[in-house]
Every structure is written in C-alpha cells, then in structure tokens.
Amino acid sequence: MLYSFRRCPYAMRGRMGLWIAGITVTLREVKLANKPPELIEASPKATVPVLVLDSGEVIDESIAVARWALLQNDPEGWLAGDDADLIAEADGAFKHHLDRYKYPNRYEDEPGFGEVDHQAEGLKILQKWDARLSEHGQMCGPERTLADIALFPFIRQFANHNRDWFDAQDLPNLHPWLEAHLASDLFRNVMPKFTPWKSGDEPVWFGETD
Known about the structure:
Radius of gyration: 18 Å
Oligomer: single chain
Number of strands: 5
Helix content: 40-55%
C-alpha cells in the first residue's frame, strides 16, 4: 500500500521506481492539508511517499522506496546508476536552494535570510549537472538510471518556478534531458490524478499496465 501525493517530487520518485519495477500497489492519494490518521499511524513524520508492505514493514523515504522496488525487479538496470553522492547533493544542497527559491516566505526567520541568491546557487549546481550530462546524455551513462529519476522531479520543480528564466539559461544538455523525461511514458504513467483517499473507499490500484 502506497501513500502518495501526485505533485510531490519525493512521491514522484517513489512511484517511478515502483512503476518501472512492475510492482502493483494499492494507492492512497493524500491531501497534505488533511492527512489521514492511517498515514500518521504508519509513519509519524507523515510525509509522502510511505510504502506499507504486506509484512507490515514501512518504508517512508522516497529513495528507499525506489531502491526496494528495484531490488525486486530492475528491468532497465537502474541500480547501476545509484550514485549516492549525486543523489545526496540533490537532496541536500540543491533541495536547500530550491526550497528557499520557491518558498522564500517560509524562511524569513532563518539567520541570514536575504543574503543568498538561491536561484543563482541552484543554477550553479544545475550547470555542474549539465556538464555531467555532456559526457553520455544521462547522469550515469547513456541510459536513464536511478540517478536520473532521483534528480528529475526536483529539477522539474526548479524549472517550473520561473520557466521563462530557466529556458533562457545556458544549459544545452540539461534542457533536452529534462524535456525527454517530461515527455516519457514513464512520467505520464505515474502522473494521473486521483481523488484523495478516505477510510472506506474502494481500493485504487497503481502500477497496472494493461
């Protein structure tokens, strides 16, 4: 059973891992402003995604959900591109700047607020990743792997905050990389809209490909 939220980049990462592994789960779409008590009971931190296995084990980190799924079945060899340092940079420094670029009002009480240009700092990281893409076209080689899927939702979020500005940046490898992932069947398949779940609802299945 998977608790998810369609637009959350972490949840996207988990869903893409499950989808490519061919694992079907019951989906509980969460409305973040009204989190169901079942989610909080499963994972007290109440963030998505949360995967509850049949054994009762709970996996409540997005990259752990993807890694678990790929350990069951990895048809495209994504684990060969499980670059822990790159993913940590995305989840650490890049996410730090992304949050403060997109939601500055949330950080007004933070020491040094207004002293850092988070748009520019995020761009510096993107420029480094753009140079990496120039070697093979994907983050860890010629084919998409877990590293690409781990970074893609956050780069998408950064780009969409000011798309005109983003499109004007000199990122000759990152722009086509992003557009290809946005246009992929994989992304389309993990982004349908679902009604937020409430107790007693009929099961909704995620992962079916027929």
